[in-house]
Design a protein that fits this description.
binds zinc ion; 70% helix; mainly alpha; 255 residues
């Protein structure tokens, strides 16, 4: 196993993660993502490139802005590290072409999940970016359009059904339309069987998180729970274990 490509992928991923932090900050504020260049949200001064090195700068500067000493959120190194790991893993598992596609798609999902976690909103621009990636993958023959259609259907129909049932039982809208759109692109990317498994794990993670938060802060029926982070966590996990999951599913269905 050659480690150089995987380490390179990790470094590229952490740079991508640095850009995702810009998206996470600017998309909900409807600011341009291209200009102005990165600046400190506190003192508004532009950050020179040597103070903007993913992961490294945060630790050298002890988590503080080098100009005004304001504390920088842990979100920055965490998103950079997660994205770096996702890129590294992707190139460890898939061939370069397939790895790039999966890494880019996963990066879109990381920004989307983080924005949902912070704002309870899913920006449509990220959903559209996902759709473009799906189109690209059908065009290059990585994804088969029949599986894309069945996957998209499963990813939309099951959450819609869950949303309907939740509403009938509690008179509350459990999930948002953003979750349905996310289900659509995840299903299209993963295929129908993997999507069902993704929804199952996401629901499980969501329930565990809800219980953990409730135990800590007290039970509150009205506490909103963003669902996208759990959907994305499950989807990326299943995407990377897809070949193993596929074998497991075949055994389950045909034995
Ligand atoms: Zn500053």
């Amino acid at each position: 196993m050659a480690w150089l490509p995987i380490i390179s992928a990790f470094i590229i991923g952490s740079i991508v993660g640095s850009f995702l932090n810009v998206l996470i900050y600017r998309l909900p504020r409807e600011e341009s993502i291209w200009s102005p260049r990165s600046h400190c949200p506190h003192c508004k001064k532009m950050i020179p490139w040597y103070q903007n090195i993913p992961l490294v700068s945060f630790f050298i500067q002890n988590g503080k802005c080098a100009m005004c000493n304001a504390t920088i959120s842990w979100q920055y190194p965490i998103v950079e590290a997660i994205t770096g790991c996702v890129w590294g893993f992707s190139f460890f598992i898939f061939n370069p072409m397939h790895a790039t596609m999966n890494a880019v798609f996963s990066s879109i999902l990381i920004a989307l999940a983080w924005i949902d976690l912070k704002t309870m909103m899913i920006p449509l621009s990220l959903i559209i970016s996902g759709v473009i990636m799906i189109g690209l993958n059908i065009f290059t023959g990585i994804l088969e359009w029949k599986l894309v259609l069945w996957g998209a259907l499963a990813g939309m129909a099951i959450p819609l059904l869950m949303m309907g049932l939740t509403f009938l039982m509690t008179r509350r809208q459990g999930m948002g339309w953003g979750d349905i759109q996310l289900g659509l692109i995840l299903g299209a990317w993963l295929g129908p069987l993997e999507m069902i498994l993704t929804l199952f794990f996401a629901a499980l993670l969501g329930i565990i998180a809800w219980l953990a938060i409730s135990l800590k802060k007290g039970f509150d029926r009205n506490r909103p729970l963003p669902f996208a982070p759990y959907l994305v966590m499950s989807a990326v996990m299943i995407l990377f274990l897809e070949s193993y999951v596929g074998i497991w599913f075949d055994k389950l269905l045909f034995l």
